[in-house]
Amino acid sequence: MKIITTIDDLKPLYKRRVPKMFYDYTIGGSWTEQTLRENISDFNKLYFRQRVAVDISNRTTKTKLIGQDATMPVALAPVGLTGLQHPDGEIKAAKAAEEFGVPFTLSTMSICSIEDVAKNTSKPFWFQLYCMSDRPFIENLIDRAKEAKCSALIITLDLQILGQRHKDIKNQMTAPPKLTLKNIMNMATKPKWCLGMMGTKRHGFANIVGHASGVKNLTSLSEWSANNLLRTLNWDDLDWMIKRWGGKVILKGIQDVEDAKMAVKTGADAIVVSNHGGRQLDGALSSIRSLPSIIDAVGGKIEVWVDGGIRSGQDVAKAVSLGAKGVMIGRPFIYGLGAMGQGGVTKALEIIQKELDTTIALCGEQSVENMSRKNLLIPKDFRGNWE
Known about the structure:
By secondary structure, this protein is α/β, with parallel strands linked by helices. It has one domain: Aldolase class I (TIM Barrel, Alpha-Beta Barrel). The protein has 16 helices and twelve strands. Strand 2 and strand 3 form a beta hairpin. The longest helix has 21 residues, at 342-362. The protein is globular, with a radius of gyration of 20 Å.
């Protein structure tokens, strides 16, 4: 049996057990995938300062995210089609997050519905909202999330148009998958996945089908996005969404200092520095390199988090040291879910927490909340020297 010690150890298991189109959906980015790659590689440009002869006997990774207790400064990011990575995937991931003590975020494009996840969990989770042109549908989604007692609303700002993801196009990625000869042959090599999917009725976009006007059978994310994403989105549009929600709000998809300043004016509780995991604007700066300037500009006025490229507890420690209040992870927990179900999500979280705890100890700190830029060696050109 393979001994799993890192997030990367989960990836080959995930690849072996999940159909290719869903594996590719997770690992892929847009266009050349430059931003996807640099989201990961740019963490390697930051170095820790090792400190010794410091009392590290009573350490903690605990913190608060928008006032909510968390076992570590990590939340599970919203990931579409999670329920096709593993049967009832959103429910399994939400349960794992709940038991571990970190927030789980349900995507608008989930397979399990808001109501399904609420029924199968005992603590509030977060809900992620895409900005769409069908205002009554958005209002209904917000009201459904409130009825399910979701404790925060994450509004994604960087999806006014779908980035071109070559892998998804070539795979003809749909939910449920199209039964082409190529897909049938591939799924035949994943018998456990097939049996699991036969054992659940959750195969489509449950938050949308039957709720959005005229949508009775939706299979293609790209088809639906082309007709429904809000191309005219502006900062004023957020005002009525935030007021209708009336609770904690997080704005996701901020990469620019000026946008971060505008986000503060909305009254949101937090922003997430994010390029959608390298799945939208290819050639954009990595999230971790974008983070310091945004922290310096607005960090004292709003919680600033980051996502994209985080594959270890060391990455979490680097992000927090730069000033992030927390991070969101997507691919790491999906690797675990696809590989081992709910237990795989727990395993991914355990790996990250163990690495985080060891890292803060070797940096001479007792709490993750004590980590700061003093714990890093940061290249002078890390932010870039742009014209």
